[in-house]
Amino acid sequence: MAAQLLDGRAVSKAMLAELRADVVEFGRVHGRRPTLATVLVGDDPASHTYVRMKVNRCGQVGIQSRRIDLDEKTDTKELCRVIGELSADPEVDGILLQHPVPGHIDERAAFEAIDPGKDVDGVTRTSFAAMAFTEDGFASATPGGIMALLDAYEIPLAGRHAVVIGRSAILGKPMGMLLLGRDATVTYCHSRTANLREHVQRADIVVAAVGVPGLVKGEWVKPGAVVIDAGYADNQGDVDFDTAAQRASYITPVPGGVGPMTIATLLTQTLHAAQHRTTTTTLTH
Question: Which residues form the Tetrahydrofolate dehydrogenase/cyclohydrolase NAD(P)-binding domain (predicted)?
C-alpha cells in the first residue's frame, strides 16, 4: 500500500492564507506592515532563487521585504556590521541571512549578530536554547515547518522513536530538540554513525537532512513509518522515494514537501516578531 503524501504545498497554502488575514489585521491596528530584511552575500544561483521566492511570498501575504545584496568579497566584519544595523533598525521586524555564505565568512559570527528578537529563521544560539528548553522563541524555519506539517496531518509524536539523520546547527540538531520537546525518543545519526541502516529500520519517524541524494534506501524503512525528506541536492531528496513510499505510512515528496513549509514558517514568525516587538514597545512607553 502506497504511503500518503505529506503535501507541504497544500498545508503551506492554508498557512499563508491565514497569515495574510493576520497581516491585514496587524496593519489595521498598528498602521504598518511587518518587515522582513533578507541579506544575501555573493552570486550563488540557488541562493538567489531561494531569496527571490521568499521575497515573492512576502508580497503575497502583505509582508514588506527589504533585500540587501552584498558582494562576494564581503568579509565577516562588514557582514556583521550590516546585520547589526538591521538589528538596531526599528522598522525591521525579522532578519534572514541566506545560507550558506561564502567560505571565507564566519557564518556563526554572522548569525550571532542577529538580534534574537528578530531571528525569524531561528539560527542563533538563543533560538536553539529556546527550542532545547521548550521556551518561547523562534524555531529554526525548516524544523519548525516540519513540525507544522506533522501537526497538520495529526501524526502522533509522543513515545515514538524518531531518527534524525544530520546534525547541522540549523536543521538536524534543532529538529531533534523539537521532537524531543514533543516527547518523542530521538536518535541522531551522522557521518560517523555505524550501521545507519539498522537505526532507520527501528525508526517510527525518519527525518533525513543531509543533502546526499538517495542516502536512505527505501527497503530500510520500517513498514508504517513516517518519512520526512528534508534533503535537497541536484533536485533530489535524501530518501529513495519510490521504494520508501511503498513501505511508509506517510512521506514527503521532493520538491513540494518540506520546502514550502520552511517559507511559510519563516513568514509566520516574522509576523510574530512584529507582534511581540509592538507589544513590548507599548508596554515600555
Answer: 140-277
Q: Which residues are catalytic?
A: 54, 98, 121
Sheet strands (E) in the chain: 4-5, 35-41, 64-70, 94-97, 161-165, 185-189, 205-208, 226-229, 250-251
Q: How many domains, in total, are found in the chain?
A: 2
**What is the per-residue pLDDT across 170-189, written as a single tens digit (0 to 9) for each?**
999 999 999 999 999 999 99
Q: Give the C-alpha separation, 66 to 227, whole Å.
A: 36
Q: Is 122 within a domain?
A: no
> What residue numbers bound the domain in which 235 lies?
141-258
pLDDT for the residue numbered 273: 98
11 exposure class (CB count in 10 Å sphere: 0-12, 13-18, 19+): buried
Asked whether the beta carbons of 148 and 161 are under 8 A apart, the reply is no
Domain assignment of residue 10, yes or no? no
Cα 144 to chain centroid distance, Å, stands at 6
| Residues in a beta bridge with 164 | 188, 207
